[in-house]
Amino acid sequence: MKGFSMKTYLLGLIGHGIGLSRTPKMHEIEGFHQGCPIVYRIIDTLLLKRSINEVLESAIDFGFQGLNITHPHKQEIIPLLDEIDPVAASINAVNTVVIKDGKTIGYNTDVTGYGRSLPGEISGEVVVQIGAGGAGNAVAYALVAAGVKRLMIADMDENRSRLLADNINSALGVDKVEGIGLTALEESIAASFGVVNATPMGMQAHPGTSFDTSWLTPRHWVSDVVYMPVETQLLREARALGCKTLDGTGMAVGQAVDAFRIFTGREADPARMREAFLQQGQERKD
Ligand code: NAD
Q1: How far, in Å, is the centroid of ligand 1 from the Cα of 203?
Q2: pLDDT at 284 over 80
Q3: Ligand 1 centre from 135 Cα, in Å?
Q4: Contact 280 CB / ligand 1 (< 6 Å)
Q5: What does the pLDDT look like over 26-64, one tens digit per residue?
Q6: Which of 25, 49, 74, 149 is catalytic?
Q7: Is the pLDDT of residue 67 over 70?
Q8: How many Cα atoms within 13 Å fall on the side-chain side of residue 259?
């Protein structure tokens, strides 16, 4: 059949509590549209009660060609892999693994995916980030790689924000990232171009915002990594003020677009993948 790939892909997502992940359908639907058959499986290590080592070995034995890795395995998978891409190595987190001829190579498409969704205007600007956990790690790397002039990171755990700032400075060989206390947030936001929420605040289980949105002005650019819901209180209030915004689909879809290319060598259509992502939320009302 013309345009139809004879190669089929067996892919999977490994993590805890991932039954509602929208990543499998993004890949399967994109593969369908490209005439490139993809079967994408959920491999929940919590339900299976299996270690990451066992699951990775089984995936290799069963002929999986690619895996996405999520919480809590993004760090612990690293020593199990044969090769690590430099970006993933420098932030010590892998979310994508390619399996070829029994060899495994790890990548981080959270970084590149968030990076591809950033607007060009942030280059040369000051940005404040709240949240220095797993998502914050990828966000901070992507912001600095995108050329921000200065990045201030705050977290309710101040040690975490300082540690992340040190790690990103040394990973990228710069001195432009600083960990700050929550008490310095208002002043820092006032002096910034943009603000990124990389905390769970805004999710149904964590209602509210991670900072007082009355500190925003219409000239601020505001990004939220939370994607359940896509329309968070932060984004709603920022838009009402007239701020430009980037919602959590930027990273969630961007990571899948980059993983799709790594898995299949094909360029995914980001708009179609975003549609597949949003459609699942509408169907489930989350
Ligand atoms: P995490 O637990 O690793 O880190 C969250 C960090 O936020 C912690 O360091 C915590 O101390 C800090 N924090 C929490 N509430 C805070 C507050 N009010 N003020 C300051 N700091 C606060 O979690 P994570 O894996 O980084 O996930 C964070 C959010 O990002 C979640 O909502 C998750 O769903 C979302 N996420 C989105 C994507 C995406 O693709 N869009 C990817 C990964 C995670």
Answers
A1: 10
A2: no
A3: 6
A4: no
A5: 999 999 999 999 999 999 999 999 999 999 999 999 999
A6: 74
A7: yes
A8: 36
